Amino acid sequence: MKRNFVYYTPTKIIFGKGAETQVASLVKEQACKKILIHYGGNSARKSGLLDRIQATLEAERIAYVTLGGVVPNPLLSLVYEGIELCRKEGVDFILAVGGGSVIDSAKAIGYGVANGGDVWDFFDGRRNATMCLPIGTVLTIAAAGSEMSSSCVITKEDGGFKRGYNNDACRPKFSIMNPELTMSLPDYQTACGCTDIMMHTMERYFNQSDNYDLTDGISEALLRVVMKNARILRDKPDDYDARAEVMWAGSLSHNDLTGCGTGGGDWTTHRLEHEIGGMFDVAHGAGLAALWGTWARYVYTAAPGRFVTFAVNVMGVPATGTDKEIAVKGIEAMEEFYRFIKMPTSMTELGISPTDAQIEEMAEKCSAIFPDGLGAVMSLKKDDMIKIYRAAR
Asked: Where do transmembrane segments lie in this chain (predicted)?
């Protein structure tokens, strides 16, 4: 029997060349008094994007304050700083200019300002947010899909905890998406982004549910499109059409479209990677690539049909041989794709070599959040996590 589901996507998308020129009119629609422009490092400033946005806002007499400094794994300390700044300045709208990390940081700030108390409580599972300051985005990196999602991931430096929180209250009011803004990204960051986009759909795709054929078809097409264009971008990083395909896929992959009727999906690779990111501060997409093949080999016998379908429909593996042979060939084909776009397929290739003690710590942190087991394909406990980490090392 097909599962019931709710599909909610309130974000207005403005997509295409020059889309960022509409930022002032979109902000004015929110009837806000003062906005926080939140951004990352120097790239947004050096590219002239921030200056253009600020000039546009000033021309419309829209008051704003700025806060930069977001890093790839956004930090709780900067979230606290943003909350204090917003309260001091009377900010009632946040404009995130950047990629998923900036948007996630903006969402966390929005939660903190709107709800009071310690914002980390939401990420630590102690309470739920009832509201969030309204947020808009100007996307510069196609990867996390945070520009349309209910998701938000923050790292607490004290203890190296990387935790996610989902709540529809944080879904952006609008997201401006100009593929040209992603053309200056380093090749590695582009490849990490493509990997992250694909994993958001793969996490939903791998499950034990009686999926809708339409949802599966959308998921499979999205994965094939991202793979095709990731290959193009490896050698032609300024290809606008490829950038546009990847950018739109990033949003659709994580706005829950590819999860309609799947029962939520697996998400084990993401959860395991969060612990790696919290401890070693690695690029999220690269960390996912380093773990996925090992996870897949560990669990595929629990859902062989799903892995066979993936191998045939996504990876183009011939439907000949046993289910085990086809499934393994599909896993190997995905790893070959990762290598082609210069993504790691092990933690050694990722540039880290966790000790047994560190692996024990990561598994302990992850299993503590999921005491009844993690994963939809196979319910994994602490010992399973340790085995996967060790095999991926």
From this structure: none
Q: Cα 323 to chain center, whole Å?
A: 31
Nearest CA to 148 out of 323, 340, 332, 11 is that of: 11
| Helical segments of 90-166, H only | 100-115, 120-123
Q: Is the predicted pLDDT of residue 352 greater than 80, yes or no?
A: yes
CATH class of 12-181: alpha beta
Q: Domain residues of the chain, as ranges?
A: 12-181, 186-392
Encoded tokens for 116: 């009071």
Number of Cβ within a 10 Å radius of residue 72: 20
Same fold, 12-181 and 186-392: no
**Two tokens at 154?**
């923050």
Q: Is the pTM of this model over 0.85?
A: yes
- Six-digit token string for 302: 């629990």
- In terms of Cα–Cα distance, which of 106, 90, 118 is closest to 144? 106
CATH number of the domain at 186-392, please? 1.20.1090.10
In a 10 Å sphere around its CB, with 0-12 CB exposed, 13-18 middle and 19+ buried, how is residue 6 labelled? exposed
pLDDT digits (tens, 9 = 90+) for 367-382: 999 999 999 999 999 9
Gyration radius of the chain over CA positions: 20
